[in-house]
Amino acid sequence: MSCRTVILISGSGSNLQAFIDHLHPEQTDIVAVISNRADAYGLTRAAQAGIPTEVLDHRSFADRASYDRALAELIDRYQPGWVILAGFMRILTPEFVTHYQGRLLNIHPSLLPRYTGLHTHQRALEAGDSEHGATVHFVTEELDGGPAIMQSHVPVLADDTPDTLAERVRQTEHQLYPLAARLCISGRVALVDGQVQLDGSPIAPSGLRLDQFETDMRGHRND
Ligand code: GAR
């Protein structure tokens, strides 16, 4: 049976587009896309794909707690099995996170635990890093601190700017996120006692590697 999934966005929605293009409808049914910003281009992408959209503007709420309560109520109307943050640029309350523990995913544009928060590409350049990337992780109360599921790696080039580096990372996100989400939704990856397991065995704290996993999986199409 197809798993009901709600995707939260705030902006362009290129990761949402990757889900629309790469998730099999028999396995994953995107039942709603919710944005905190009415002008998010991802809403147009969703509408073009025939997915119901909702806008819940945080500026209409007195505080973070009341917004997150209303957001959870809205999400739960769609009865999702999984909630996927795809560029949803809001810090979430512990109550919200606890409510969806183990079935709430995020993507962050850095090799966590390096560079939580904003301006990750600029910070990687300033630090002189030779590689950079993105991380899909379970969401916990700690900002960008939840257990890692999978990472993508890209080289940092001598003439990179924050924008060129961001674009190289973004391209990998579009493979990384649908693959990691498929593993979770199919039940192969799960959060067990705060630890990520693949097929019942714990994985490395930094998560699976996209490039490694793709090689390992060549010939196995049951994910
Ligand atoms: C992505 O690069 C994602 O990693 C980042 O926002 C972008 C959204 O792009 N998320 C965060 O920074 C979360 N801390 P998109 O709207 O085109 O998918």
Question: Can you give keywords for this protein?
Answer:
Rossmann fold, 3-stranded antiparallel sheet, single chain, 11 strands
Structure description:
The protein has 223 residues and is α/β, with parallel strands linked by helices. It has one domain: 3-Layer(aba) Sandwich (Rossmann fold), CATH 3.40.50.170. It has helices spanning 14-22, 41-48, 64-77, 94-99, 120-126, 162-185, 210-216; strands at 3-9, 28-35, 53-55, 82-85, 104-108, 131-138, 148-155, 189-192, 195-198, 201-202, 208-209. The strands form two sheets. An eight-stranded mixed β-sheet has the order 3-2-1-4-5-6-7-11. A three-stranded antiparallel β-sheet has the order 8-9-10. A hairpin with a 2-residue loop joins strand 8 and strand 9. Helix 1 (14-22) packs parallel to helix 6 (162-185). The longest helix is centred in the last third of the chain and has 24 residues, at 162-185. The chain starts with a strand and ends in a 7-residue tail after the last helix. Glycinamide ribonucleotide (GAR) binds at residues 9, 11-15, 42, 86-87, 107-109, 134, 170, 173. Residues 9, 11-15, 42, 86-87, 107-109, 134, 170, 173 line the site of glycinamide ribonucleotide.
